[in-house]
Specification:
This protein is an all-alpha fold. Helices cover about 85% and strands about 0% of the residues. Strand 1 and strand 2 form a beta hairpin.
């Protein structure tokens, strides 16, 4: 069911971004994100293997099984993060394609632009519904890893914390990147229209229409903005650092 939803969202995005440059940029950015995800996965798994080697003089069957399961779970998590960023970049390209048409056209039809934006808005909402639970799961994983670091420090397993700490520092970038690629891009369209010179269309009316549409990324009917995620990361970081410092002080 999830695979069908992702494929449907992908086809909707490709249908609404028919510009060849948008498709090329989307593929190039997706390939770069995939390389980054693979490198991060290799670093985290290598760090876990090295820490276990340093903590244990001999590696038994259970230690090897732990590394295998850790590599599988980390690969699944980073694959989910890559999928979220992949769909978010697609939504960004759809919005930027319409903005490019507005900036390059000598004359625009306000009614046609509004109709196109309604289609893009419906595409973004359907994609958000497909992404929301995966995004919430990544946010919950960030909380779990951040608080587990304090538990590891409480048990005086200092070196074992390093791979989890590295992963915990990388995952918030995904949470922040998704609204930056979607909500922030949509929020930047109305100010751009206000600065454009009239060329056969009512730009002020379009600006008000885009602003009232509240386009962007949604989780459970809640509009996710970059400011909201920054507050989440800040509060989570403060709590995790406080718990870790108390654990080190008690230890």
């Amino acid at each position: 069911c999830l695979d069908e939803g992702v494929l449907q969202c992908q086809s909707n995005i490709e249908r609404n971004a028919q510009d060849e440059n948008s498709q090329t940029n989307w593929k190039r950015e997706t390939g770069r994100d995939a390389v980054i995800a693979i490198v991060l996965w290799m670093l985290v798994v290598a760090g876990r293997s090295l820490t276990m080697t340093c903590l244990q003089t001999t590696l038994d069957f259970w230690s090897g099984l732990h590394i295998v399961l850790f590599s599988m779970s980390t690969g699944t998590l980073l694959s989910a993060c890559h999928l979220l960023v992949y769909l978010a970049r697609g939504m960004k390209n759809v919005a930027e394609h319409l903005v490019f048409l507005l900036c390059s056209s000598t004359a625009i039809d306000t009614a046609d632009i509004k109709d196109d934006w309604k289609i893009i808005l419906a595409c973004m909402r359907s994609t958000s519904r497909c992404m929301q639970w995966g995004y919430a799961s990544v946010a919950g994983t960030v909380l779990f890893i951040a608080f587990s670091v304090g538990g590891d420090l409480w048990q005086t397993q200092g070196m074992a914390v390093l791979p989890n700490m590295f992963l915990c520092c990388c995952l918030p970038a995904v949470l922040l990147l998704v609204p930056l690629l979607t909500t922030s891009v949509c929020d930047g369209v109305p100010p751009l229209l206000c600065l454009m010179e009239p060329r056969g269309g009512d730009y002020l009316s379009l600006s008000l229409f885009f602003n009232a549409s509240q386009a962007g990324f949604y989780v459970c009917s809640t509009r996710v903005t970059a400011g909201l995620i920054q507050k989440f990361i800040y509060i989570t970081g403060i709590i995790a650092i406080t718990l870790a410092s108390k654990a080190l002080h008690v230890g």
